[in-house]
């Protein structure tokens, strides 16, 4: 892939030419970054794969790296929740066809939404492995190793076959088979920038939930839901030790005397 | 010496489920009298903790305490002052079991005991994605780059020396995790306001507007409509921001917090301040800003901080913290001292501007009255409210609801769930209900 090279070259050319003609409101503050400095930190990878490094890694290589550096937390097949939510599971061949993951709505295990049930962009996974993994040694993998680990994960999800090698030239094809690629929306009011109609995202801040303020004799049905589960009450500790022992109130003892 | 008896030792314990199904049906039928009648016995046992008086009066007055009869400690005995040892119950706390890796977890601010709107820096909530470091500020750098070279004429590097020479701003803003109250989408899950709402803090931050730095680097604002912020920690956490927010001048690169430098847990020596937007975007240990022409779909925008809707779609780039409020005292896990006057206090905030009104209900939302908003009332900051209440010893259901400058009214759980279901995790700004029992005990409850 040549985009990295093009970008770096352009930076070199620009870094030297533009600095000369600059209007400097704050003389003496900061300095122009060198191309090597920019390359050292500019590790982000976008959904259109801008920023993706050159490289290549096979499913088999990925399995080896994953077994050595990732499996302790994630399990050998990315299925473990011993440390984090599982990476793999909950997706089907149907999902790969449709690009939607219905199991997101199952109520069987609400907090076990796996990574590949959710992500809509394969770049996000590459970017994250490259910047933050392995957990105890972030940023230590080579680009080839990141490609390999991602190839292994994609194979576990049945996005790529066992004999596949993932590279900067075919990652876009993997994107087209990502299970939840059609499962996200930006049509909401919680984006604080320009709306989609003006080239941004979302609806320009229109709230989706609209309530009306009644003040007197409001028609409210009062129906209490279940009380706080006892194990959660125990886990949260003793309120008597979480409040002042003087003042307007006291903490209610967890174990009444 | 003081002989204040421990009030907690004399409290009457309340039944686990005070309202039976029959009681609830009675409430639904509009009959509240039953509560008064059936709970008289409990009310009679109410505790009003008082100092034990001797024949001549209060020993705390009659017998001079040691601090009135001896010399105290010298100045600078503690060069960096600490809270009184009697304040040790107010700590930030992790909820055991919420995360299996404490470096990828959160600790909650003890809102139940805080006063005013400023969170003491040492009690500011924490959310780390790969642990925190106390990094060397002399070795820290901020770099500004572009996703394409043409978007930034001069990609630059700034040291803390550089940044602290620039003209600063100081502003008070709330900071709320997008996952605050996230555990409560389905039903009441945690007993206290520390755990229901404690991923919330408010500080005065000091730093340099990001717009100034982007202008200094010659950013092409016509093309670069998105901003990526990146941390220097192991996670090197990244989030996308809209350039509109930066252009407004609101977003700044902060090094100061409450009159001193940021605390290490809060991003020392540099973090982004993104008023009104969820905490994850306030990138800590900020090392890099990249401007671009597209959003970035980072891990925290695809696998986490996405809101699952009832149609199975995940809302992406949800960022604004909508108007919300909570009564912080009396609140779950607390017990009232007794009948009589009780100030009800709480916090209100909106990611869209100022809070304009807070209403409080004592009967589960049938009737409301406006609370007093205490000054200052600031954009995208916590606002303290208070309301007078004379508790007659009967059960009550306390709620607060806030309205912001856009006219948006904080919804109740039912209204929120009708649109967003119960699986979202993020951006739960529903009205909180606290049930006061005749015993004075306060519980976290949800009205269906």
How does this model look, in words?
Chain A has helices at residues 3-20, 35-41, 59-69, 71-74, 93-98, 115-118, 122-132, 143-156, 171-175, 230-235, and strands at residues 31-32, 56-58, 165-167, 184-185, 249-251. The N and C termini of chain A lie far apart (70 Å). Residues 1-22 of chain A have low confidence and may be disordered. With 257 residues, chain A is mainly alpha-helical. By secondary structure, chain B is of the alpha+beta class. Chain B has a five-stranded mixed beta sheet with strand order 5-4-13-8-9. In chain B, strands 6, 7, 10, 11 and 12 form a five-stranded antiparallel beta sheet that branches. In chain B, strands 20-19-23-24-25 form a five-stranded antiparallel beta sheet, with no helix packed on it. In chain B, strand 10 and strand 11 form a beta hairpin. Chain B is globular, with a radius of gyration of 25 Å. The relative contact order of chain B is 0.14. The interface between A and B is large, with 116 and 145 residues. Strand 4 of chain A pairs parallel with strand 15 of chain B, so a sheet runs across the interface.
- Low-pLDDT stretches of chain B are 1-21, 23-46
Q: Over the alpha carbons, how many angstroms does the gyration radius of chain A reach?
A: 25 Å
Helix content of chain A: 25-40%
Whole-number mean pLDDT of chain B? 90
What is the multimeric organization of the chains shown? heterodimer
Measured distance between first and last alpha carbons of chain A: 70 Å
Distance between the termini of chain B: 50 Å
The class by helix and strand makeup of chain B works out as: alpha+beta
The portion of residues assigned to helices of chain B is 10-25%
Instruction: Report the principal-axis shape of chain B.
Output: globular
Major sheet: arrangement of strands of chain A: 2-3
Mean pLDDT over the full residue set of chain A = 91
Annotation field: number of helices of chain B: 10
User: In DSSP terms, counting alpha (H) and pi (I) runs of 4 or more, how many helices of chain A?
Assistant: 10
